Amino acid sequence: EDKVVQSPLSLVVHEGDTVTLNCSYEVTNFRSLLWYKQEKKAPTFLFMLTSSGIEKKSGRLSSILDKKELFSILNITATQTGDSAVYLCAVADSGGSNYKLTFGKGTLLTVNP
Amino acid sequence: DAGITQSPRYKITETGRQVTLMCHQTWSHSYMFWYRQDLGHGLRLIYYSAAADITDKGEVPDGYVVSRSKTENFPLTLESATRSQTSVYFCATLGGYNEQFFGPGTRLTVL
After folding, report:
1. d(CA A78, CA A15)
2. What is the pLDDT of residue B12?
3. Which of A29, A79, A80, B72 has its CB surrounded by the most CB atoms within 10 Å?
4. pLDDT in tens, B13-58
5. 3-state secondary structure A4-39
6. Cβ contact, residue pair A104, B42, below 8 Å
7. Is B98 or A78 the better-scoring residue by pLDDT?
8. What is the pLDDT of chain A when averaged over all its residues?
9. Which residues in B76-103 are b (16+ Cβ under 10 Å) and which e?
10. Which of A82, A78, A97, A105 is nearest to A16 (CA)?
11. Phi, psi (rounded to 5 degrees) for A81
């Protein structure tokens, strides 16, 4: 059974801090790892990672994958109150001809002014 | 507008009733998914579909039925609702780069 574990489960920081969110996984047929941001609505896509060591970057957010150690990190620099959300990590399994995601429980990030 | 829509957005029903949650997409994406999201469990896959007339079970399929007669629609039916099915339900599609796009969600309460 595929498994995704995120840590920490929650985090409180002050504006301007840098945070690192962790995601470790076990999956039978790894296809990709995805990060989502969820505020009080549906998750929105942030990054998809398929190759080790290649950093994906979007503004103050960046992410990298280590397929050997089976984990990924999501970094947010110079945090803002608008970054407060649940960050979800998911792993895509491509066993056979099917395709599905297994999600971690998320990290709740609270950024205080 | 293009994208994914879900209806209803909110639903209150009683134990034992049949409920159908609708999902419609305008992208013609092949893959579609139904998730439920509960505190402490995160997002869990109920069913998914690789194409019209092809569906498969996810992690928590019991008590749910799906169909996909057309590419753009993927309804989820609770045949006899139970209190444990109170949840927020998200429909999603798979984009061209294998990222999933989520609908706005349906908040279902079973009394």
Report:
1. 7
2. 97
3. A79
4. 999 999 999 999 999 899 999 999 998 788 898 999 988 999 988 8
5. EEEECCEEEEECCCCEEEEEEEECCCEEEEEEEEEC
6. yes
7. A78
8. 91
9. bebeebeeebbbbbbbbbbeeebbbbbb
10. A78
11. -60, -30
Chain-centre distance for alpha carbon B111: 20
Give the nearest chain A residue to B91 (CA atoms): A42
- From A42, A44, A99, residue closest to B31, measured CB to CB: A99
Residue A19, both tokens: 């945070």
The residues, ordered by sequence, that sit 6+ positions from A100 with a Cβ below 8 Å of its Cβ are A92, A93, B33, B45, B48, B58
List the one residue out of A27, A23, A83, A104 whose CA is nearest residue B40: A104
Bridge pairing between strands B106-110 and B10-13: parallel
- A36, A103, A105, best to mutate vs chain B, most B CBs in 10 Å: A103
Q: How many Å apart are CA B42 and CA B45, to the nearest integer? A: 10
